[in-house]
Amino acid sequence: MWFIEGDISKFFDRVNHSILHSLIQKKIQDKRVLRLILSGLNSKIHMPNGLEISSDMGTPQGGVLSPLLSNIYLNELDKWMEEQINAYHSGKQPRLNPIWSKLRSRNLMSQARKHPRSHPLDPNYRRMEYIRYADDFLVAIRGPYKDAVRVKNELAQFLKTRLRLDLSLEKTNITHISKGVGFLGHIISKRRVYIYQRFGKKKQFKKKKNA
After folding, report:
1. All residues at 6 or more sequence positions from 118 whose CB lies less than 8 Å from its CB, including other chains
2. Interatomic CA distance for residues 137 and 176, integer angstroms
3. 46 bridge partner residues
4. Which helix (H) or strand (E) holds 65?
5. Does residue 181 contact residue 188 with C-beta atoms inside 8 Å?
């Protein structure tokens, strides 16, 4: 399984006000509320040297408004990813790994556990998953590496054309699950299987990590 570690360049500074306003208008009809939100977006930034800066990009810093508006903005990415997932999924279940099956048929389960039960490169079975928190997101792909590269490039194109955001191609890495992937302070890695073996005269159990 491959993971795309999404990194959007300077997201909170690059939110386009025109696009955000059009997205809000789809759900909010009250013009007074719309004017209030727009005035907050267009408020000037007072610099320490006395200068005032206005911009048509970015979200208000601090409080709850910035993450709320940012989630509305990136909801377009969520919907697009849902379409990609539905289109990518194929097959009901992967076929068994022939190496695993052969070892299991010989009752060599300790050796069989060293291999995945399902065939990792089954061309008829594809899956994609997506999770996002604020501007951090992960895309998991069960398929070949070239599919992960393609999805990464299509992600960059969508963000650029639809939301006028830049996907950092240098920081957006494609990592295999065997190497572990960091997300929100946690590491996602391949599951470790532990087995228990009897040893000694008293037949005590000893925990042993299976490779």
Report:
1. 93, 94, 95, 96, 97, 125
2. 16
3. 52
4. helix 65-88
5. yes
Angle between helical axes of 65-88 and 17-25 (0-180°, round to 10): 80
Give the Å distances, CA to CA, from 21 to 62, 79, 195: 20, 18, 56
Per-residue pLDDT of the chain (211 residues; tens, 9 = 90+): 899 998 888 888 788 888 888 888 887 777 787 777 776 666 555 556 655 544 444 555 544 457 778 888 999 999 999 999 999 998 888 888 888 888 888 888 888 877 777 877 778 889 999 999 888 899 999 889 999 999 999 999 999 999 999 998 888 889 888 888 888 877 887 766 555 555 555 555 455 554 4
**Which phi and psi angles does 43 have, rounded to 5°?**
-65, 145
